[in-house]
Amino acid sequence: MEATMGQSHGRESIISGPSPFDTLPVDCISSIISFTSPRDACNAASVSKTLESAAKSDSLWEKFLPLEYTSLIPQYPRVFSSKKELYFALCDDPLLIEDGKKSFWLEKASGKRCIMISPKEVSITWGSSPEHWQWISIPESRFEKIAELIDVCWFEIRGGMHTRYLSPGTRYSVYIVFKTKNGCPGLGDLPVDAGVGLVGQESPQKLIYFVGPRGRDRRRDVTRPEARDDGWMEAELGQFYNDSCCDDISLSVGKTNTPDWKSGLIIQGFEFRPAKTR
């Protein structure tokens, strides 16, 4: 068999001959690649024509799709020519599930499940009182109705989700996804308590900003919000490890120990996605 690796220049290697995989049946190669990741499958396609063919096979990409993918297909307005095309649709076009209360998609590089839950799925103190909170519809939201803070003194949100919606053996980060109006008076520049954890275990607590003060008033121990590509802001509430998909997750965010009235926060939802590797 001809060698596959030629001269090495720095960190790059030049392929000087056919891949050793070229002697194997395409189905066998696809099976081998299925034990890697979607990112690795895409990289393998650039090695040789044989690997390219194997990396496009439906049998390979079906391994990267969620088990219930057939129930998700009818929600798309188009027909997919391959399982790979369906996979990338699930990465790029989140679907509403659970009667529109959850948004589901896949992380592109790994195929890990991601979920955003609607604010209708959590408990918001005074959330049913129109003078304190309003439920609004805006085009840029994934959900039909989202929560807008009008005026409250006691700001507190609690909720959670079952880990069966997520990928096992994965560390997740949880984010509140939001926008602010007029600087979010009474709340934007104050550290807000946040926590995430498995029910029955002690949840690590942290502090977040929705806006954050400028200059010397900025605290280093408070997580600042970050802008998203979709035009919203997000702040990480915490992390947890999903071991067996048999647990419940709790989340909380609030500011209850100040007498100031608070307003100007629009909450799209709470997002669960694989934590970034450091």
Provide the descriptors you would attach to this structure in a database record.
Jelly Rolls, single chain, six-stranded mixed beta sheet
SS strand fraction: 25-35%
Main β sheet profile: 9 strands, antiparallel
Global mean pLDDT: 89
Count of individual helical segments:
6
Order of helices and strands: EEHHHHHHEEEEEEEEEEEEEEE
Low-confidence residue ranges? 1-16
Give structural notes.
- The protein is of the alpha+beta class.
- The protein has 2 domains: 26-93, no CATH class; 113-274, Jelly Rolls.
- 15% of the residues lie in helices and 34% in strands.
- The chain has helices at residues 26-33, 38-44, 49-54, 58-64, 69-72, 83-92; strands spanning 5-9, 12-15, 95-97, 102-106, 113-117, 123-124, 133-136, 146-149, 155-162, 170-180, 192-198, 205-208, 222-223, 226-227, 233-242, 248-255, 265-274.
- The strands form 3 sheets. Strands 3, 4, 5, 7, 8, 10, 14, 15 and 17 form a 9-stranded antiparallel β-sheet that branches.
- It holds the Pfam family F-box-like.
- Residues 18-64 form the F-box domain.
- It comes from Brassica campestris (Field mustard).
- This is F-box domain-containing protein.
Q: How would you summarize what this structure contains?
A:
This protein is α+β, with helices and mostly antiparallel strands and 278 residues long.
Task: Describe the SSE topology.
Layout: E1 5-9, E2 12-15, H1 26-33, H2 38-44, H3 49-54, H4 58-64, H5 69-72, H6 83-92, E3 95-97, E4 102-106, E5 113-117, E6 123-124, E7 133-136, E8 146-149, E9 155-162, E10 170-180, E11 192-198, E12 205-208, E13 222-223, E14 226-227, E15 233-242, E16 248-255, E17 265-274
Parallel strand pairs: 12-13
Antiparallel strand pairs: 1-2, 3-4, 4-5, 5-17, 6-9, 7-8, 8-17, 9-16, 10-15, 10-17, 11-12, 11-16, 14-15
